[in-house]
Amino acid sequence: MVPRVVSRVRPTLLVFLVLATARPASAAEWEGALKGTLRLLADTNAPRDFTDGGTPSPGVDPALSVLGSAEGKGTFERTQLVGRYELGARKYAGFSDEDTLIQAGALEASLALGTEFGLGAEGHVKDRRGGTRAYSDLGASAFAEYAPDVRLALRVRAGARRFVYRPDPTANFGGLELGVLGRYRFDRRHSLSVFGDWGARRYGPLARPRPGVESSPGRREDGALTAGVGYNYKGPLTLGLRYTYQEVSSNSYGETVLRHRVSANAGVRLPWRMTLLAQGSLGVTRYPDGIYLSPEIILVEEDEGQNSLSLKLSRPVSERVDLELSWGLWSTRLPRNDLRYSRQVFGVGVTWRD
């Protein structure tokens, strides 16, 4: 993960209301945490190239990765403030064009209305600089929550989003978003969640007409749908399973895409105070028009819409310091032209927690 430059998040009106109606600072409860990780990496495909069968691998390139995060929460009589900031940087020895800096921040304020309902506002910003996928992603929304007991929680939200893709301004978009998230806990070990988001994206350039159609459909407009279900288990083994369906329907020829994705994560304690964490995902992507014309936009570092598998083994050496070994694999294949993508990243690092 690499750090990005984050714009200042301006406090919302609700934040001011929260601060105005909160109890005195002496009656508030404050929590916070700091975390930092330093890793030495070996990347087998630093430029993230697709190759055919006869193209040699770009070779292994070492890199240095630095990650840091800070989070805090303030709880008052009826209100709560939650904030988080993350910073990451990666420096390659041979592929300096892939050096990356990423910053991300989020702020949420909520107000309890009785014992079951609540209102709030949230904002987030993520900025990535360097490499070939520089972008800024900003959003803000208002939400309402319903939580009649500790087992059930439901949140609905409505807001706006702005995305700026620096290598290609034609991929910039803005629009409204709606979302819903529900969670049900069967008991302290088993829980089920459902989620869905829909966004109306509006672009600057004109949409591409379908072949044989002379009239332009106007400016490009997309409808982005994400829906899924997840299951979590907490016991001797921590387990999470998730299925996600994504559909981007566009009036621009070649831009519509459908994705099915299954992901899983697990964690288990091992002898000698060691912990093993594993993550994996499999996906199927389909382009109804037979092609995909948009530039490849990577929104999450190391989660490139590929099939993936990653492992991390950690062991504490003190109360606040852990040593870790990590490995990750990402791969995919484009069936129409037989291009293949494969990348492995090996790492050794140390993590400090406050």
From TrEMBL:
Signal peptide positions on this chain: 1-27
Record keywords: Signal
Origin: domain of life: Bacteria
Entry protein name: DUF560 domain-containing protein
The organism's taxonomic lineage, starting at the top: Bacteria, Pseudomonadati, Myxococcota, Myxococcia, Myxococcales
